[in-house]
Amino acid sequence: MFLQDLGKGLLRRWYMVVLGLGLTLYGAYMVYGVVPLTYKATASIVLVPPATAVVEGENPYLYMGGLDQAMSVLVVKMNSEAISTPLIHKQPGTTYSLDRDISTTGPIMLLTSESTSEAGTLQLLNNVIKVIPENLKTLQDQLKIPDNARITSMNIASDHEAKPQNKDRIRMTLMAVAAGGAATVLLTGLVDRMLMARRRRRPPRIKKRKARRNQQVDAQTQLQLQSGEITAAPPSKAATKAAAKAVLKAGTVSAPAKRLPGSEAAATSAATPLAADAGTALARRG
Fold it and tell me: Is the pLDDT of residue 261 over 50?
């Protein structure tokens, strides 16, 4: 029932719906222009085991199974504010994240950088790649690990072109359209309900004015009837039937009584004035 009334209200106030949708589309266009376009670039960094952990003459890639713990420590350090703040402070509006690459089983880290410009994204990516070996060395210096037992890092893949990302702009635009559409429907329904309620509750002044006007018209009509300027219209069949039903309900109509001697003369004498009045009325109409 509520949805049906709301639909009728929207149809009655269609102009408000059109205006609201127009404002919604304009707002969505402005949001799409305000939200900046971002760019994204990625790089893959792998940890290489030390020489002491590899049998002489063997492939180092076969001995990467024990580097997950060292990779987790390095990821935590690289994502800390002490490391990220100096890098981001040089380029406002940029962010980066270093996480384990879940698409592989080896000690490979996925570096992601984002910025509002393609050049800034690539520059941040390269700056983070440069400081990863330095922080890995710092972690091992704190434990005084010998050089031949140190873990190293290697960049195995990185983007040379940043890719534009429209997800944020599209998401914000859709949110603006949804909010504007909902506000249009709710506001139109509220206004329609207020106007309909106001129409049902007419002010007393209007009612009194209308009643006074009707009284004046009735008085003028009575004066014209008395002066003979207009004649009263004969009652319709529907009005006659309604009056007869009312009389029957009131019990004023009774069964015909038996004729008594002299009743015909009395009826004739009573009908004489009525005929005279009817003749007078016909003369006036003529």
Answer: no
